[in-house]
Amino acid sequence: MLSLERVSARYGAFQALFDVSLQVNAGESVAVIGPNGAGKTTLLRVISKLVEPHDGELRFESEDLNPVPAHEVLARGIAHVPENRRLFPRLTVEENLRMGGFPRFCRPRFAERLEVAYALFPRLKERRRQPAGTLSGGEQQMCAIARALMSDPKLLLLDEPSAGLSPVMVQAIFELVRRICAEGYTVLIVEQNIRQVLKVASRAYLLDAGRIKAKGPSQELLQSEEIRRTYLGL
Amino acid sequence: MTELLDIYLLEAVLNGLLLGGLFALLSLGLNLIFGVIDVVWICYAELMMCGMYAVYYLYVQFHWPLALAMLAAIGIVALLGFLLHQFVIRPVLAAEPINQLLVTGGVLFFLQAAATLAFGIDFRNLGLALPALRVGDMSFSAARLIAFGVALLGVLGLFLFLNRTYVGTAIRAISQDRAVMPLMGVSGPRIFAITSALGGALAGLGACLLVLQYDVHPAIGLSFGPIVFLICVLGGLGNLLGGFAAAFVFAQFISIGGYFFAIEWGYVIAFAFFIAAMFWRPRGLFSR
Amino acid sequence: MNYPLHLAILVLLWGYIYTSWSLMGRLGMVSFGHGAFMGIGAYAVVMLWNHFGLSPWIGALVALAATAVVAVLIGYPCFRFRIVGHYFALVTLALSEVVRLLITALRDQTGGSLGATPKGALTEGTTVAIGAMQFESKLVWLGIVAAAWLAGLWVWRAVDRSMGRLALQAISEEEEAAASIGIHVTKAKLRITIVSALMTCVGGILYAQYQLYVNPDTVSGIAISLQMVFGVIAGGMFVMLGPTVGAAFTLLLAEGLRLAFGNRYPALDITIYGAMLVLFIIHMPNGILGAALERFRRRRERSLLKAAA
Description:
- The structure holds 3 protein chains of 3 kinds.
- By secondary structure, chain A is α/β, with parallel strands linked by helices.
- The longest helix of chain A has 16 residues, at 167-182.
- Chain A is globular.
- Chain A has one domain (27-38, 72-230): Rossmann fold.
- Chain A has helices spanning 40-47, 73-76, 93-100, 110-120, 122-126, 137-149, 167-182, 194-200, 218-223, 225-230; strands spanning 2-11, 14-24, 29-33, 55-60, 63-64, 78-81, 155-159, 186-191, 203-208, 211-217.
- In chain A, strand 4 and strand 5 (63-64) form a beta hairpin.
- Chain B is an all-alpha fold.
- Chain B is 75% helix and 3% strand.
- Chain B has 10 helices and 2 strands, in the order H-H-H-H-E-E-H-H-H-H-H-H.
- In chain B, helix 1 packs antiparallel against helix 9 and helix 2 (44-61) runs antiparallel to helix 3 (66-89).
- The longest helix of chain B has 36 residues, at 2-37.
- The relative contact order of chain B is 0.20.
- In chain C, a hairpin with a 4-residue loop joins strand 1 and strand 2 (134-135).
- The model of chain C has no long low-confidence stretch (mean pLDDT 88).
- Chains in contact: A-B, B-C.
- At the B-C interface, helix 4, helix 8 and helix 10 of B face helix 3, helix 4, helix 10 and helix 12 of C.
């Protein structure tokens, strides 16, 4: 479904990604793990074209994404939950969701998608008239995910959904991610919380210093001696 | 004697209210542009001047029906707003904020002088004789009443548009987080262009209301521009509701000041109040 | 002979006024209020002379005192409450309108928007009335405005010297950074503002006495304030001679077009000027002189590199 071939990206003189190759197949949930500053966020930003890849090939459902401008990526079926959620704080929850369904093709199905979102996140329904800025961290994360689901994407990109949340909320968010995967969404998730995310994802890539260092089924990576020592501190 | 004074004071207050409605509409477009794009169109009043000339020429010279002339004027100024954004603002969006204000100052000179070249310095008016409404001893010009009504409708319309439509929501959203917009499938530059055209259209609507009451000449922007800016700042730049309220406050100062002294004194008092208010509440009277 | 002299006087006089404005402008204090200071200067001397027979020299002292008071009244709260950028520009814009409206409103004393003429002191045969600050010879005026202009440049350098580049930069860019290197920002800004306002006031006085005519629309208000701001931008506000170049450029553009087309197209110069301003701000925000110097510097660097290679 999504494939990256030897993709490089840079910010000015600083190169953030080196020859990254990665595949996501329909129905899969794939994780990209790695330490802080490894280039995980950049990877997602490249896929949604917020960052122009400097080199390499970027394909989604056999279409070349390279010439597609960022604001048309959503219409291709890729929705991105950005780092730090990035809700519109002074818009209400429901208005935030409306923004998630902004493209023309989404609009006729808005009511239907809203039902789906509220079924998945009943808490949001209670708060739908509240400005998003007044939500708790966990609720904001839910709102950000719900917003991305409004366009019924083929592929969902999640950037650090557990960051900055209380331990209880982290559990809840991963539970939700698991449910989203179970409902058949294809998910590419980036996380620092390696142990948790490997329980949710079926496959994973290890990204460090802008390079893919390892890949394989989650269970395998979880048992790899090197990963346990270097990244899990066991 | 005191009774007579009171009724004229009441008339001044009510006229101030009507003037406030007009000011509220005039400041709406500028405020919208600032709130969304973070740019002050210092040439905003000159756009209104263009709209006033458009109405004048279409109606007086080309004998269009007044309503049609006004609609066309709104369209023309909307187009001007769009062009202003595309060719003047966009190239400096990344530059220092003050440059964005200054670049529109160049447009101010340009429009004002170009109007002088094209239309001469004569004062022109539509030659309409609108009746005055008399209530007891008080009288209110119909032009002001119409302006007041249309202004309220305009404010309401904008409010509904921003709250009830996808594009309106996107306009509010982009003012809160520009960079995330592509992830919503929204093209930021497109929303800016639409907002600019909308701001222009509001300036055009303001022009239609102004031309009912005032003569048009190339320098008319200078007499309305400062008031409009100050109202926006007084309400808190970008705060639409604050600007709306500030328009009424400002208009009362002018109207009541003008009642007690001469009309210029009304303006002097209003401007002085503005300066004092800025020190008292630097982010606008109605800042949150 | 008179016409070129007249032009030279105007270039130097406006060059001086623009320089005064730039003292603030280059520190990020873009004031739209300098029309107020110019208006106070021009009207104070003319009114005191006409109504009380007070010599403009004395009147100038009154005008300067009034200007200083106004500058502090507007500057102190602005800097104290960190009113910067758009807000500063618009607050000062209100100030220039207040002064213009006051002059217009006091029409019984000032003549309102028709303007006023100082009572003539040059009788038949006399060409110099020092007490009345009226001189028939344009050469005398050239000397006076040249002195003012040089003084303005001297102040510019003195400011540079006394504060140092670093401090200047810090004030204009980062208030906190400035405070951290031990600059009392409010005080520093206020001092510059007072100097700039006083110099502009002197400009207004000289303008009134040279033209022997004042009008609220040509010495105060938004129009004149905008003229100062944009004249400076055209020339370049970050180099010492930039404002003067701006003054010369705008004046010569206007006069050149007038010579070429006569009075057939009365606003052609401003039309072109406005369009050029837009292009300047987009393509060369450092102004004519700033861009020219930059180019010169680059070329020299390149030739130095070549020589080294």
